[in-house]
Design goal:
single chain; 473 residues; alpha+beta; f41 fragment of flagellin, N-terminal domain; three-stranded antiparallel sheet
Amino acid sequence: MVINTNIEAQRTANNLQASQNRLQKTLSRLSSGSKIVNAADDAAGLAVSSRLESNIRRIGSVLNNLGNAMSLTQTQDGYLKNIDHAMQRMTELAMLAQDNTKQDQDRALYNKEFQQLMDYVLSTRTNDFNGVNLFDGSKVDVVIDPDGNTFPVGGVNLFSSVYDSALKKQSWQLTGNTWQTSKSGYVTDVDSQKILYKSGSEAYKLTSDLWWQGSAWHTSQPTTGTPPAPDPSAVKVSAGSFIATGSMNGNSGLTNLTAPPVANSTKFDPNTMTTADLAASGNGFFEEMPAPPGTATADKIQYSRITKGSFLASDPAGNGDLEYQHRGAVAKGHYITVDPGSQDTDAIAFSSGSTVTTDQDLSDPPFNADNLGGVEIATIEGAKASLDVIFKALDQLHLDRASLGAIQQRVEFTSGQLITSNQNLTQAKSRITDVDVAAETTEFAKHQILVQSGTQMLRQANSLPQTALELLR
């Protein structure tokens, strides 16, 4: 019996420490849900589970890529479906245009819709999916497995010759200077004149004959003497002519005129238009601008001459006499042969010999452009030719849609296989790393009891040397 060394206490302490370590490991597993908390827990299992985890993550990325590939092909097919409908309608119009009971005016109306549908298809060719062009024929390589293997999707080329032949717009070679408007507006079909006021004056167009005498207007010829005779001091101003009020001098003694009767005249506001020749019917009150150097007259209302075919940025009707049939509304991109000047400073100028593409008929005056051809149904011959090339384009379109359908099927099957692989790999990883809670709680209870028991036994072992005191009494 010894006092300095308590071997039993040391043994009990070692057992207690081991039980505590196992209890701590069990607690770590239960709290983390994983059997492998440290690399030392299962070195081989850790390596295998890490490889499986890497595979699972890569499969998730591949599935994401395949989802994007499916979206791309579905977007392509959505556009092609609408193009299919548009081109089928184009064939309908081409058939209608071949009806010999139709007039050229009817075919012109069919051609307007035909060209609009063609413009829709042409505009679709440049669409993209997140910056990837959908219809330029390029293919996109899509990763299909965790090892990085790929297969191509896309490949639809709406710029191929078969489509170009069916979507060729009418083109013309210009024979004179031409401008393309940058905005909508109006084009005049008669020569007209725009009145610009002089301060303190007003312009009027007479709707019936009037006589000016002294300081007043008369609706009938003034007379004098007995028997009455026409007063020579009265100046007749004929219906349809223009006059100006204020301190201005006209022809034949017409000066300092007042406003004519409302019932016999129409007032022209500044900048309004007239189709009348103000040089002939203006009674000397008007002067064309810009006047030659040194000829400007202070007491004249100036006007600018607008040539037939000129572009006007705003509706010129106002209260003038440029009637609606004398100008037509035009859309942005309309071609004209008169420089629009300040009316459209952004208009694009084309010189003689240039080639332009437009549905606008440039064969007649004032253009007299050379027709370079295009797909149209304005004539029976054009409708027959158009039908042939559109049928070929539709055949190619159906092949392209079938190819996209096949690609979508492959993407779906590949995605299904990867989903199955992902489930299997996840299950395999779970067997290695996930803790069995039922078994682990049993271990926890066992080690908890051992720690409590070991604590009590260590207390008893530490009291064993006290028996030596009995021998010293």
